[in-house]
Amino acid sequence: MTTVGQNVAKKRIYIVDDEPKIGELFVNVLHRDGFEALAFVSPQAMLERVKSEAPDVILTDLVMPEMSGIEVINALKDREPPIPVIIMTAHSSIQSAVDAMRLGAFHYLQKPVNLEEMRALIGKALDLYDVPAEAAEKKKPPVPRKAPPDDTLIGESPAIQQVRDVVQTLRNVPNTTVLIRGETGTGKNLVARVIHDTSVYNAGRFVEINCAALPDNLLEAELFGYERGAFTDARDAKQGLLEVADGGTLFLDEIDSMSLALQAKLLSFLESRSFRRLGGVEEIKVTTRLICATNARLEEQISAKKFRSDLFYRINVVNIRLPALRAMGRDMLVIARRLLDQFCKDLGRSFEGFSPEAESKMLAHTWPGNVRELRNVLERAAIFGAGARIGASDLLIDPAPADAFHDAEDTFRFPSGGPLEELEKAYIKHILGSANASYAEVARILGISKKTLWEKRKRYELDPATAEAEEDVEG
Fold first, then answer.
1. How does residue 254 score in pLDDT terms, banded at 50, 70 and 90?
2. Structure confidence at residue 4 (pLDDT)
3. Which of 55, 117, 217, 323 has CB atoms 3.0–4.6 Å from 12's, for a disulfide?
4. How many angstroms separate the CA atoms of 173 and 176, rounded?
5. In this predicted model, what pLDDT tens digit does every residue of 354-404 receive, in sequence order?
6. Torsion sign over Cα 143, 147, 152, 155
7. pTM for the structure as a whole
């Protein structure tokens, strides 16, 4: 990998910013690093210069009076050979920077710009686009290999479609940190794998670690590695997972379990994309994409001084929120059928799907363990089921414990201390608002008739049903 002072002779960097002092600062820094650097306050002047003398990398501000950074990208998008463009943006414009990356920007830098991070990104851009001088063309960014059939993102609910859209966008956005949020068992690790498999990083390794599974000192050693003699049992040097996943993806599950001290070290890595092994002095730079996941409310953790706000901002560049199984309506049955088919294949069994009673039982359950719980229930049913179809009696569903939804972001919370009808009202309102199903299906989930549901809705003054639902009831 290109590092500062290595193979940078005659490498030309253009900086575009309407604030002259910023351009002057970057030119001075890059000159000391051995680059040829020119600063422009006018994007148009820079584009004219490109026609006669093309740079190896362009750093441009996102918001400028004459022309935006996105317009600069559009002006260069059909150029051959391509020039990597790094966007510089304020924190309030991060989403615009991500949009720019989707349009073709190589990456972005958040203002005020960290000079070490700038150096690291320029090095990555040169590594990706540069080839030996005798080559006729610069190397284009790697094209993601065709992803395997997606068995993870099943369903047609708006929430699942939104997840698909974000994953699709991330195919063309290199190295952006992703935060996946959702209850336990919603498939955060599987979504992380899909992001990896469909990205330019799929040629590298996908490495996963649960931050809650190790004590803090061991977790630090696992992530950053260590040199021989760093501690009593360190008889040999060992690569950390950040090194192992270089060129690929590191998935940190339950990142909220990480101590504040280790959070600070992870933040330092994200800002510079470099780190030292325990007991080491050498700075190691990697191009590892980081995907984090949590079932906790990080905003509450920040208020309680258990999670660093600056780390939260760093990992929350792209946020994916996975829906709870109980909020997916009939999509849950699609997932159940897919799982049953897989178990039949694995166990050599054959079932013609589920009986209507079994489907109603699954739709009525709150699934505190989400897909993980559904998988366990269906595996047991596939083993012991004796009929042509899986029946309601084959589904051994345990009642949800009282604290089942303590980690849910979007969960229904039972009112306490009030009359029974307040509980009923709250639950009916929740199902009406969260189920991706018809009015009749909501009635079936609740175990009542459509007419009874209609009467309860009117009595409790809940949101009006659709005209179609009214016609169903009247009919």
1. very high
2. 46
3. 55
4. 6
5. 999 999 999 989 888 888 899 899 999 999 998 999 999 999 887 655 445
6. positive
7. 0.57
Contact 55, 46 (CB under 8 A): no
Is the pLDDT score of 261 beyond 90? yes
The b/e string for 235-273 (b: 16+ C-beta within 10 A; e otherwise) is: eeebebbbbbbbbbbbbbbbbbbbeeebbeebbebbebb
Kindly tell me the burial class for residue 77, based on how many C-beta atoms sit within 10 Å of its own C-beta (0-12, 13-18, 19 or more).
exposed
> Running DSSP on this structure, what letter comes out for residue 327?
G
Query: What confidence score (pLDDT) does residue 455 get?
Result: 79
The DSSP letter of residue 323 is: P
Comparing 155-169, 282-296, 424-438, the range with the smallest average pLDDT is 424-438
Element (H, E) at 321: strand 318-321
**Range with lowest mean pLDDT among 66-70, 106-110, 230-234:** 230-234
Q: Are 105 and 73 in contact (CB under 8 A)?
A: yes
Residue by residue, DSSP assigns 209-276 as EETTSS-HHHHHHHHHEE-TTSSTT--S-EE-HHHHTTTSEEEEETGGGS-HHHHHHHHHHHHHSEE-
The tokens for 180 are 């996946």
Q: Is 19 helix (H, G, I), strand (E, B) or coil?
A: coil
Rounded Cα–Cα distance for residues 70 and 63 (Å): 9
Q: Do 385 and 355 form a contact (C-beta atoms < 8 A)?
A: no
Two structure tokens written together for 230:
């760093």
Kindly state the DSSP code that residue 153 receives in the 8-state scheme. S
pLDDT exceeds 70 at position 433: no
Task: Report whether 249 contacts 200 (CB < 8 A).
Answer: no
Q: What pLDDT is recorded for position 216?
A: 80
Residues found in the chain: 475
Helical packing angle, 370-384 and 331-347, nearest 10°: 50
More confident of the two residues 162 and 450: 162
Tokens standing for residue 69: 């950074």
